[in-house]
């Protein structure tokens, strides 16, 4: 028994004729008779009486018709409720954004979600990219932007952009003046101010150093990008950043940078969510808006 059979049965009762019900329901009369037969077999009793004037429900048929009307109405209401959830997203959505991407994404995302879906309670968590990965896997975040190119178990990932890393130093640093790039080996030997593990930037630099059979000269560990840039601007050392990150913030005008070469170091930006846990409707709506913002940034050259 399914809802379609109940709808067909109600049509037969309403029209008092299998032929008229078949015409109204746009179902072949033999098929409608077969559905009625199967319904009677399911209930183990006769549901209608065939007379010269048509069909009339038996007592059991009248009881079924009464209950079927309420059941179908409830299912229609349930369907409307479920569709409403999809069409009018509401509830919490938690999005993780690495600190380095916050200046270009957090406020635009919050504004866009608020305008498109005012019933969504958006929470944006900014932090280290390494923590974003952990929080998505643990369920603390519905989705997040992370860095990395390797396959990550337990995550669905979408490619967003790839950006080249630069050695960043004070704007008046003679070592960086008049050069088009700096070899990676030379950059490694400089006193570097880097975030600690598990920051994605730190892992990218150390992984590249390992492949080049070199070591990273870490002079200071600071888990705050703006403070790292401020210290570099004061001449306390150098750091490794993308050009996009280096040009934002209070210290940006006092910094300069060179692309790292031989080898070039790239990092990949991914949009990720956990594979084993479906995203809530509100999170899916925020995900769609975030994808649109990322596409706009990519087209505008914000990743270069």
TrEMBL record:
One of its GO terms (molecular function) is DNA binding. Pfam families: HTH_1, LysR_substrate. Keywords: Activator, DNA-binding, Transcription, Transcription regulation. Residues 1-58 form the HTH lysR-type domain. It comes from the Bacteria. This is LysR family transcriptional regulator. Belongs to the LysR transcriptional regulatory family. GO terms for biological process: regulation of DNA-templated transcription initiation. The keyword Transcription applies. Transmembrane segments: none annotated.
């Amino acid at each position: 028994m399914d809802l379609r059979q109940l709808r067909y049965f109600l049509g037969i009762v309403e029209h008092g004729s299998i032929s008229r019900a078949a015409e109204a329901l746009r179902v072949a009369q033999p098929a409608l008779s077969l559905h009625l037969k199967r319904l009677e077999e399911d209930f183990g009793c006769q549901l209608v009486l065939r007379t010269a004037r048509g069909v009339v429900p038996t007592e059991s048929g009248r009881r079924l018709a009464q209950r079927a009307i309420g059941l179908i109405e409830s299912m229609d209401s349930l369907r409307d409720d479920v569709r409403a959830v999809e069409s009018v997203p509401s509830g919490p959505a938690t999005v993780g954004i690495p600190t380095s991407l916050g200046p270009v994404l957090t406020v635009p995302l919050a504004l866009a979600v608020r305008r498109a879906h005012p019933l969504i309670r958006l929470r944006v968590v900014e932090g280290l990219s390494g923590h974003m990965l952990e929080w998505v896997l643990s369920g603390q975040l519905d989705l997040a932007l992370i860095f990395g190119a390797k396959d990550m178990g337990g995550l669905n990932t979408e490619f967003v952009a790839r950006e080249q890393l630069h050695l960043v130093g004070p704007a008046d640093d003679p070592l960086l003046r008049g050069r088009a790039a700096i070899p990676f080996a030379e950059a490694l030997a400089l006193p570097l101010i880097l975030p600690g593990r598990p920051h994605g930037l730190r892992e990218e630099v150390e992984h590249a150093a390992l492949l080049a059979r070199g070591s990273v000269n870490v002079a200071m560990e600071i888990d705050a990008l703006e403070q790292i840039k401020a210290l570099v601007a004061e001449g306390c050392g150098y750091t490794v950043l993308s050009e996009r990150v280096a040009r934002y913030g209070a210290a940006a005008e006092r910094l300069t940078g060179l692309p790292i070469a031989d080898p070039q170091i790239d990092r990949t930006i991914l949009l990720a969510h956990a594979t084993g846990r479906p995203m809530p409707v509100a999170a899916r709506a925020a995900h769609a808006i975030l994808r649109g913002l990322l596409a706009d940034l990519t087209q505008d050259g914000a990743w270069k």
